[in-house]
Amino acid sequence: MTMLLTDSDTEVAEHENETRKVRKGERTRERILEAALDLFARQGFAGATMRDIATEAGCSLGLAYRYFARKEDMVLALYDRLAQELSDEADCLPVSSLAARWAAIEIADLERLAPHRDALAALFGAGLSPDAPTQVLGGATAEIRERVRGVFARVVNGASDAPKREQCAEITTLFYAAHLSLVLFYLQDRTPNQKATRDLIGFGREILSLLRPTLGLPMVSRYLTRLSGIFAPLFGAT
User: Measured between alpha carbons, how far is 32 from 16 in angstroms, rounded to an integer?
Assistant: First the structure.
């Protein structure tokens, strides 16, 4: 017996078909990005061509260009993914002290960055070049920086001993600056299992625990404001 499809049935079928296409496209995009990261780690950013990446991903060059117009877009896609994963980590942080929350998100970040460590190290030069499209503090990454800053704002404001609002904003800026410095340190750390980086985070937690009770002192507050004001323009913060 022939079944007649209603308009509603047709809409559902079309929606499911469109959903499958989107998911397939996302998987293809992810496969190309992973191939690029693997090649960046092995050959360096400059040494890997779009054709090499397409071959590594098992797709045509045209398909690779459909998802990424240039290699730099792949780097920006990685930054975007890392920012989202950092945000997800912040959502899982328990309510605890400022020092504990900072150390926890940084330790979790090391574990998350580990699979991409060689690729990120290869991108180190491109990420710091003032004129590069992938420059960490450049215009193309402004939106990502704002999202990451928002993550550290949640880390600070969600602490059981969060300071007053003005200082929360200042500490957020300093946490972001410390995070970028820590990532660069991590990428250059050659100690087993990057022990030096982990020790640095532990040291930072101790210092934060000691300094937290002093934030209300006028002199400490002035220096905090001054230091955050120095870093703020780099991140586009006010």
Answer: 24
Most confident region among 17-21, 119-123, 193-197 by mean pLDDT:
193-197
Which structural domain range is residue 117 located in? 71-235
Domain count, the chain: 2
Which has the closest alpha carbon to 189: 124, 99, 132, 128?
124
Q: Which of residues 69, 88, 110 is at a domain's end?
A: 69
| Encoded tokens for 73 | 């877009």
Residues 231 and 116 placed together within one structural domain of the fold: yes
Q: What is the pLDDT of residues 158-194, one digit of tens each?
A: 999 999 988 999 999 999 999 999 999 999 999 999 9
CA distances from 153 to 8, 16, 106, 149 (A): 45, 39, 14, 6
Give the pLDDT score at 235: 77
Q: State both tokens at 160.
A: 């059981």
> And the tokens for 212?
């937290």
